[in-house]
Amino acid sequence: MSLDLATLNASIQKESQFIDKMFQEVSKVVVGQREMIEGILMGLLTGGHVLLEGVPGLAKTLTISSVAKAISLHFQRVQFTPDLLPSDLIGTMIFNPKTGEFSPKIGPIFTNILLADEINRAPAKVQSALLECMAERQVTIGDKTYKLENPFLVLATQNPLEQEGTYPLPEAQMDRFMFKIIVDYPNKADEIEIMNRMGTDNQPIMSAVISKEELLKARSVVDMVYVDNKVQTYIVDLVMATRKPMEYGLGQLDDLIQVGGSPRATISLVRAAKAHAFLQKRGFVTADDVKAVAYNVLRHRLILSFEAEAENIKSDQVISDLLGQVEVP
After folding, report:
1. HEC string of 195-252?
2. 242 pLDDT higher than 70
3. 74 and 161, same domain (yes or no)
4. Any idea what the CATH number is for the domain that residue 315 is in?
5. If pLDDT is split at 50, 70 and 90, which confidence band does 272 have?
6. Which residue from 59, 182, 233, 286 has the least number of CB within 10 angstroms?
């Protein structure tokens, strides 16, 4: 095992060289927001969709488009609006009068990275069309099904749900996102840097630092990151504790959690922990890797009760209790 781990570490050192270059390129345009950038990178390394939530003006869209520019992948942006139709996203069948037949006209969903901007402004029909793409990596137009390219990733932004003109995403669709990252305001130093950098017309030029083939190769290395049985048990215990908190000494959460994490939460935790270890250029997963990704993986999957809402308890508080109580290997 020591030889295998040494070989894996050497491979990770080689394949992760692009990470520092990626941060350098993106930081030319985006100030701070390292957690958001890391989350997007982990999504790219695992094929997991990423949802960014925050008020307007926090560089969510800019960060996604900047990451896309740093990778040689096809990129499409769709601005979600209340009048958006499923055909505007996936495409439709067009009648050709010369041949008398219908032929498909593909939509912007046929890409490597789809930026779904303000995803919670679109109605249910559009969300259901997107759900098939996110879950199955395929699109149905008319009576034919088309496979999407590999890699395919949805990077979505949304405004907080309490703002006007938004639709809460259905639970099944939220569960398809590996991460939900809360984007907060920059600190004072970053705000001054943003003001100085963006207050002129001289915008920096970015260049690609990794190709599609190199990204797919890095993905295969991430898959090989070692997860010990004890860490696997820890991941399962965390998710099980959201379903049966009483069994893990978390009786105070029993009335607060209405629906716990699904098996997809377990899968997302282990994949995200592997990607986090890869970002640290390490060939094995530790409990700290799991803790580092737990909030982003679990916060949108926990459905809290009316009692929690009445007491103004948020999912992050529940996750904090879980991490503090569940035994660490």
Report:
1. HHHHCCCCCCCCCCCEEHHHHHHHHHHHHCCECCHHHHHHHHHHHHHHHCHHHHCCHH
2. yes
3. yes
4. 1.10.8.80
5. very high
6. 233
Residue 1 lies in a domain: no
Q: In what order do the strands lie in the sheet with 153-158?
A: 75-79, 113-117, 153-158, 49-53, 177-182
- Please indicate, yes or no, whether residues 132 and 202 belong to a single structural domain of this protein: yes
Q: Is residue 9 part of a domain?
A: no
pLDDT band at residue 239, thresholds of 50, 70 and 90?
very high
Q: For the packed helices 287-298 and 315-325, what is the interaxial angle rounded to 10 degrees? A: 160
| 7 inside domain | no
Which domain range does residue 286 map to? 225-325
Kindly report, residue by residue over 36-73, the tens digit of the pLDDT.
888 888 998 998 899 988 877 777 878 888 888 888 78
Whole-model pTM: value is 0.86
Q: How far apart are CA 48 and CA 118, in angstroms?
A: 19
Structural domain count, the chain: 2
Residues 125 and 169 in one domain: yes
